[in-house]
Each structure stands twice: as C-alpha cells, then as structure tokens.
Write a structure and sequence with these properties.
Blueprint: H1 4-23, H2 31-68
Length: 84
C-alpha cells in the first residue's frame, strides 16, 4: 500500500504541478518570491523575442542571397580516356 506520508507528498506534488500548469511558473511560491520569478520570466521572454527576431532577419537575408545568386551550371563530366 505504501507509506502514507509519501502518498500525501505525491498528491501535493501533483496538485502543485496542476496549479503551475494552469497559472504559470511560481504559482505556489510566496508572493515576494513569485514576483521575483515573474520578473525573471519577463526578462527571459523579452530576450527570447529579440533572439527570434534576429534569427528571422538572418534567415530572410540568407533566403534572399540564395535567390539572387545565379545557379551554377553543372560542368560536364570529363570524358574517360581509354587506357592504352
């Protein structure tokens, strides 16, 4: 059956995970710690948006460069010379 204390702990952890999934990270923390976590998450989100914007610009530049570059004409294969 199991240790009742362990069963209670697991139930508490499951409930905490459900709350955090619904309300966001740090939902179970005290108010001052939750505010710190939310501030860090906001900083991370801003940094991630900037990174994604830079990646998008680079990707578009590569795409344009690829379109502008003339396609290289494949050189004909050299004819085999018969061995004498």
């Amino acid at each position: 059956m199991g240790n009742p204390a362990t069963v209670k702990r697991k139930a508490t952890e499951k409930r905490r995970k459900k709350y955090e999934a619904r309300l966001g990270p740090g939902a179970y923390l005290p108010k001052d710690e939750r505010e710190k976590v939310n501030a860090e998450m906001a900083k991370f989100e801003v940094a991630e948006k900037e990174r994604k914007a830079k990646v998008k610009v680079v990707r578009e530049a590569k795409k344009k460069a690829k379109k502008k570059a003339p396609k290289a004409v494949a050189a004909p294969a050299p004819a085999e010379k018969p061995k004498a």
